[in-house]
Amino acid sequence: MSTAVVLASSGGEFTPPGAELFDFPPLFAGGPEWLTKPVLMALLGVVVTCALAWSAFAKPKLVPRGMQNVGEMGYIFVRDQVARPFLGKDAERWMPLLLSMFLLIWVWNIFAVVPIIQFPVASHIAFPAVLALSVYFLKIYLGMKHQGPVKYFTNLIPPGLPKPIYVLLVPIEYLSTFVLAPFTHAVRLFANMFAGHIILAFFSLVGYWFLIENPTLLGAPVGVLGVVMTILMTAFEMFIQFLQAFLFTMLAAMYIGSGLHADH
Fold first, then answer.
1. Cα 103 from Cα 67, distance rounded (Å)
2. Side-chain half-sphere exposure of 101, counting CA atoms within 13 A
C-alpha cells in the first residue's frame, strides 16, 4: 500500500489510513487514560456474550426453539470441532470456558463490521494477550497439578534420544512451549484483526474520497472499485473473524489438553 494517492485532476491528496485508527483518547475529558472506546467495546462484548448465553440456556426446553436452537448449534460445534479432538473425555468439563471464549472473541471481532462501533476489539494487543496469558498460566497449573511439578517439565522432552541431541532439543522445546506458544497465540488473533481493520478502512475511504469528498470523472471508477472491494472484503473479513475465534479457542483446548496429559 503506497503512502499516498495523488489526484491528478484536482490536486487534492488522498492519505490512506494507518496506525492512527487504533489511537483513542479517554472517553471524556479528564478521564483515566485506560478508559477508551476499545475498553468500553470489550465490556460490551462481555455483556453481549452473557446475554446470548442467557437467552439460549437460561430456560432450556426439551424441544429447542429460537435462541436455544442457535445456542445448541454453537455448543455442538465447539464441542465436536474444538473440545473433543484435544480433550477427549475431559471435553464436557471444559466446555463452559471454551464456548465462552469462542463467543466472546467472535463478538469482539464482529464489532468491526457493526455500524457505528466499527472496531475489532482484538486489534488491540492487550485483549488477546490477556486471554492468551490466562490460557498459558492455566496450562502450566494443570500440568504441574496432574503430572507433578517436576515431571510436567520432563514430559515435554521425548525419551530415548541420544544424549547430545538433548543439548539442542531441550532449549528449543522449552522456548517453543513457554515463550513462542503464548506469544503466537495472542499475536495471530491481534495481527489478523489489525490488518483486516486497516484494509476495510482503506477501501471504504477510497470509495468515500473519490465519489463523495472529491468526485471527478477520472476518479469515479476508482471510487466504484473502492465500494465494490469494501463489500467483498467485508464478507471475507467476517469469515476471518469467525476463523480466528475458532483457531484461538482450538489452540486453547490444545494447550489445556497438554497440561492435563503428557505430550510424550
1. 14
2. 27
Q: What local confidence, expressed as pLDDT, does residue 207 receive? A: 92
What's the distance, Cα to Cα, between the start and end of the chain in Å? 46
Q: What SS3 class is residue 156?
A: coil
Q: Please provide residue 99's backbone torsions phi and psi, each rounded to the nearest 5 degrees.
A: -65, -40
Distance CA 98, CA 256 (A): 10
Identify which of 203, 106, 93 has the alpha carbon closest to the alpha carbon of residue 138. Answer: 93
Q: Is pLDDT of 161 > 70? A: yes
90: its cell numbers: 475431559
- Residue 110 and residue 235: Cα distance in Å, rounded? 11
Tell me the whole-structure pTM to 2 decimals. 0.88
- Please give the Cα distance from 142 to 148 (Å, whole number): 9
Instruction: Kindly give the residue spans of alpha helices, DSSP state H, lying in the chain.
Output: 37-57, 67-78, 84-87, 91-110, 126-147, 151-154, 163-175, 181-208, 220-260
Is the Cβ–Cβ distance between 105 and 249 less than 8 Å? yes
Q: Are 241 and 112 in contact (CB under 8 A)?
A: yes
Other C-beta atoms closer than 10 Å to the C-beta of 76 total 10
pLDDT at residue 7, as a whole number: 35
Question: Which cell is 170 given?
Answer: 531441550
CA angle 20, 111, 192 (to 5 degrees): 60
Alpha carbons 246 and 250: distance in angstroms, whole number: 6
Rounded Cα gap, residues 25 and 148, in angstroms: 47
